[in-house]
Design a protein that fits this description.
The chain is of the alpha/beta class and about 950 residues long. It folds into 5 domains: about 5-260, Rossmann fold; about 340-555, Ribonuclease H-like superfamily/Ribonuclease H (Nucleotidyltransferase, domain 5, 2-Layer Sandwich); about 555-665, Taq DNA Polymerase, Chain T, domain 4; about 675-735 and about 830-840 and about 850-940, Alpha-Beta Plaits; about 735-810, no CATH class. Helices cover about 45% and strands about 15% of the residues. It is built from 35 helices and 26 strands. The strands form 7 sheets. The protein has a 6-stranded mixed beta sheet. Strands 9-12-11-10-13-14 form a 6-stranded mixed beta sheet, sandwiched between helices. Strands 16-17-15-20 form a 4-stranded antiparallel beta sheet, with no helix packed on it. β22 (about 830) and β23 (about 835-840) form a beta hairpin. α1 packs across α2 (about 35-50), α17 (about 455-465) runs parallel beside α19 (about 505-530) and α23 crosses α24 (about 635-655).
């Protein structure tokens, strides 16, 4: 049997794990970031289950300086401080390895690379097959017939295993050791290894292929010409030093018997305890079967629920972190005896089935007496348009509830639903639910329009703990100490239920359980809304918005497939024209969609940039941000960007939108995500209508396909004008900007006049455009570098514009400074309505993370207030259209714009209502302007 040794590069894998989820981190119920540990654990399990190593260990760096630091003090000096979340994760990673009985190897004065290099060379002599688990390219130098690189896959992709053939092909070398020579010339920015200026990966590979080593190349530089020869001769010491720094030391004095690395069974008790602590249900089930529940059966804590505490880090006023013990007396903060979660089998309950006229009458009489009740639906799908309603469940007392099964025939279902219509449509009765928008949507498609106030526990929790999960299982376990039997609220089942179906009692029990738990969750979440100061946001904005969005989704927007088909054909022709032009300008044909091939054409063959940017994988950067900078001077880049725009419009909209048209209505019914963004802005999916472009000529064509539902209708577009700029002015109380907005002057001209010190009538279009970019860029923390890139001007000039801007508008600079300080002190920022966004990295020692948090601190009150404003406007307009019994329907929300199917004869009345409600949604000290347009398609209306 082949002995397979897996050696993991510990720190590299932990960093990789952290950044894999850095934009969407996961947290435990008490706020601990578990992202790095979660990804690292899954990577380890993939290796253990799929690769079946016989021997395994993980190597880590230490803080002790190495020979590389002594040879080159600048080695790795540019690296940011380790992110705090990684610092916190490392002890738990070591716990995890201890639980798996996997050795963690360290040796002061040597890096993990050196430990791994030493051990694989020993393993080769002992006939092991060795795998170095790392994302680091330097390890290619160690590959041999018995030693391989194992690069974990990304986002579910398969891992990449590199042996001798792969290394030779990838690097263009005869022997893996020559990779050191390539890095010696090319350098390694991640480790601050300098290399030789002007030599990139391709040039380095070609030179080593020809001269075989750095030393041989330096001895024969007279054979070279021009700048290449000059750079090599001037920087020969750098080349030799860089090769030395990149060389992995395979003679580390570490005493490890490889047989001691033999894979051993894990310590199940400690492993389970760790999985419980970090609430890794999916991993627990993967290891211990479907019965595993984080917290059930494994003692995570012996403290009684009423006295459990947790330590929270709270920024102190003096800039130091203070520890505050938060007494979690509310059961909602932590489930009672979390190590012993209850289930339906443990709790006495009274769930009844109303399967005949007498029991339905009894239920209806009871419901009519309630000021509120919880409702849950059983359906056979997750799309409200197509899901068949199988049953209704109600609860208005803890541990009690009713299930109403629906008959098979559609007409009988409609008749039975009619019995419950007065209760569901009674505006005096408040309805509780989980993901109520789905339930309201299903009922709407079945002819029932639910009325009355709503309390959605999912939405409430998203405001209370926006960084945590909001699944029904998570809420139930966290706040009630109870694991629901159902897979989730509204869980779908296949097939229609017969009244005599043997599964009826189980389906009824699961559905009523959801309603019962929802009823209980409301009482746990309501005080937390108050505690987190989110009552106003929930009761005035998010809760009333739920039925509004359900109606908007249900009404849908008509899309003309013929217009899209014609546009797709036009785009195809334009793409073909751009493709021919690009090949002509490049002097070769290549795959336009291959970043690797494109980078080689642009930066090696055509040499469009002196020092082209590269990605982490070493490829040339060919993203839009990189190419836009080059577009002004190079036709091939302009053509490429236009080709990409055509390709995206064709695949994302012209080809895809017709497939989203629902046959029964002839309309597209998007799904809005109410709290998917940190600022509160709405998102849409299936399809995403938020990103339909408007700025470019071609992008505008897409909107031509959005048309009214009938001949007697028009489309009405109502768009907030410069809303974020107006919010900036109001929040900053910048008098000069407020005066300009109140006067009705062109704000960008007024800004340019002040910044450039000229009368308004002497402001040029170029001046206006520059100040427009600053006006909007300020909200996103735009730097001089960013402004320079956007405007194509030197960074020094951009910095001067920004400084002049702040000199003329000091209130805006003060707002930015004060907001960042507020965030540092409190750990969050707020919108005008009180919506909060927590900023975990606002005090980070990592400059990149801290800078991002500071930009979010500045932007969130601005963008979030604008989001709150349009949500409030939607609620008020929807209510007014209903009160007036108008035929006009609100059918889309896109950023700062609302779109309506406008019944033509209601034009004057509706436009007046829409404008008034949008202008007054949130009173500010600046005038709010709404631009209204009407037309036979969205483009004309907008």
């Amino acid at each position: 049997m082949t002995r397979k040794l897996f050696l993991l590069d510990g720190m590299a894998l932990v960093y990789r794990a952290h950044f894999a989820l850095v934009s969407r981190p996961i947290f435990t119920s008490n706020g601990a970031n578990s992202s790095a540990l979660f990804v690292f654990t899954n990577t380890l399990l993939d290796i253990l289950s799929n690769q079946q190593p016989t021997h395994i260990a993980v190597a880590f760096d230490t803080d002790a300086p190495t020979e590389r630091h002594r040879a080159f003090p600048e080695y790795k000096i540019q690296r940011e401080a380790m992110p705090e979340d990684i610092v916190r994760a490392l002890p738990h990673v070591r716990q995890l390895l201890d639980s798996f009985n996997i050795p963690a190897l360290i040796c002061d004065g040597y890096e993990a690379d050196d430990i791994i290099g030493t051990l694989v060379r020993r393993a080769e002599k002992q006939s092991f097959e060795s795998y170095m688990v790392t994302p680091d390219k330097d390890f290619a130098q160690l590959v041999s017939e018995k030693t391989f690189i194992y690069k974990p896959g990304r986002m579910g992709d398969a891992p990449e295993i590199l042996g001798l053939p792969e290394v030779r092909a990838k690097w263009g070398v005869e022997q893996p050791e020559q990779v050191i020579d390539i890095i010696g010339l090319w350098g390694d920015a991640s480790d601050n290894i300098p290399g030789v200026p002007g030599i990139g990966e391709k040039t380095a590979s070609k030179l080593i292929a020809q001269y075989r080593s750095v030393e041989n190349l330096l001895a024969r530089t007279t054979e070279l010409k021009g700048k290449l020869r000059e750079n090599l001769e001037q920087h020969r010491d750098h080349a030799l030093l860089s090769k030395r720094l990149a060389t992995i030391n395979c003679r580390v004095p570490i005493e490890v018997d490889l047989e001691k690395l033999k894979l051993r069974p894990p310590n199940e008790a400690t492993l389970k305890q760790l999985l419980v602590e970090f609430e890794f249900n999916s991993i627990g089930r993967r290891l211990f079967g479907e019965d595993f529940k984080a917290g059930r059966g494994f003692a995570a804590s012996n403290a009684p629920a009423s006295t459990q505490t947790r330590t929270a880090v709270v920024p102190g006023s003096n800039g130091a972190a203070a520890e505050e013990e938060v007494n979690e007396t509310l059961a909602a903060e932590k489930p009672p005896a979390r190590a012993d979660l209850k289930t339906i089998a443990d709790v006495a309950h009274d769930y009844r089935v109303a399967s005949n006229a007498a029991t339905r009458a009894e239920l209806l009489e009871a419901l009519a007496k309630q000021p509120s009740f919880a409702v849950s639906l059983k359906t056979d799908g997750t799309d409200p348009k197509q899901a068949r309603l199988l049953g209704l469940a109600f609860s208005f007392e803890p541990h009690k509830g009713w299930f109403v099964p629906m008959p098979r025939a559609a007409d009988e279902t409609a008749g039975l639903l009619n019995q419950f219509r007065p209760i569901l449509e009674d505006p005096r009765i408040e309805k509780f639910g989980y993901d109520l928008k789905f339930d309201l949507g299903v009922l709407k498609w079945n002819g029932v329009s639910v009325r009355g106030n709503v309390f959605d526990v999912m939405v409430a929790h998203a405001l209370i703990e926006p960084d945590l999960r909001h699944s029904f299982e998570f809420l139930s376990e966290t706040f009630l100490g109870y694991t629901p039997a159902a897979t989730g609220a509204g869980a779908a089942v296949q097939g229609q239920l017969d009244l005599d179906d043997s599964q009826l009692s189980h389906q009824a029990e699961y559905t009523v359980e959801v309603a019962d738990l929802t009823w209980q969750l409301r009482s746990r979440l309501e005080p937390l809304l108050k505690q987190k100061s989110q009552e106003r946001v929930f009761y005035q904005i998010e809760a009333p918005l739920v039925p509004v969005l359900a109606d908007v989704e249900g009404d849908g927007v008509r899309v003309d497939a013929r217009v899209l088909a014609e546009f797709a054909e036009l785009l195809g022709k334009e793409m073909a024209g751009h493709e021919r032009a690009i090949y002509r300008l490049a002097g070769a044909e290549f795959n336009l969609n291959s970043p690797k091939q494109l980078g080689e054409i642009l930066f090696e063959k055509l040499k469009l940039a002196h020092a082209p940017k590269k990605t982490r994988t070493g490829q040339y950067a060919t993203d839009e941000q990189t190419l836009v900078v080059l577009a002004a001077e190079h036709e091939i880049v302009r053509r490429l960007l236009e080709y990409r725009e055509c390709a995206k419009l064709k695949s994302t909209y012209a080809d895809a939108l017709p497939t989203a048209i629902f046959p029964k209505t002839g309309r597209v019914h998007t799904t809005f995500q109410q709290l998917a963004t940190a600022t509160g802005r709405l998102n849409s999916q299936n399809p995403n209508l938020q990103n339909i472009p408007i700025r470019s000529r071609l992008g505008q064509e897409i909107r031509k396909a959005f048309v009214p539902r009938g001949d007697e209708y028009l489309l009405l577009s109502a768009d907030y004008s410069q809303i974020e700029l107006r919010v900036i002015a109001a929040l900053s109380r910048e008098t000069s900007m407020i005066e300009a907005l109140r006067s009705g002057a062109d704000i960008h001209v007024a800004t340019a006049a002040r910044v450039f010190g000229v009368p308004a009538n002497e402001v040029t279009p170029e001046m206006r455009e520059r100040c427009k970019m600053v006006n909007y860029g300020i909200a996103y923390g735009m730097s001089a570098f960013g402004l320079a890139q956007r405007l194509g001007i030197p960074r020094k000039e951009a910095a001067e514009i920004i400084e002049h801007y702040f000199a003329q508008f000091p209130g805006i600079r003060k707002y930015m400074t004060d907001t960042i300080e507020f965030a540092r002190q409190r750990g969050y920022v707020e919108t005008v309505t009180g919506r909060r966004r927590s900023l975990r990295d606002i005090r980070s020692a990592n400059a990149n993370l801290r800078g991002a948090a500071e930009r979010n601190a500045i932007n969130t009150p601005i963008q979030g207030t604008a989001a709150d404003m349009i949500k409030l406007a939607m609620i008020q307009i929807h209510r007014e259209l209903g009160v007036r019994k108008l035929k006009t329907k609100m059918i889309l929300q896109v950023h700062d714009e609302l779109v309506f199917d406008l019944y033509a004869s209601e034009r004057d009345e509706v436009t007046a209502v829409v404008e008034e409600k949008m202008k007054t949604a949130i009173p500010l000290d600046v005038p709010i302007v709404v631009e209204l347009g009407v037309g036979r398609n969205w483009l004309v209306a907008h």
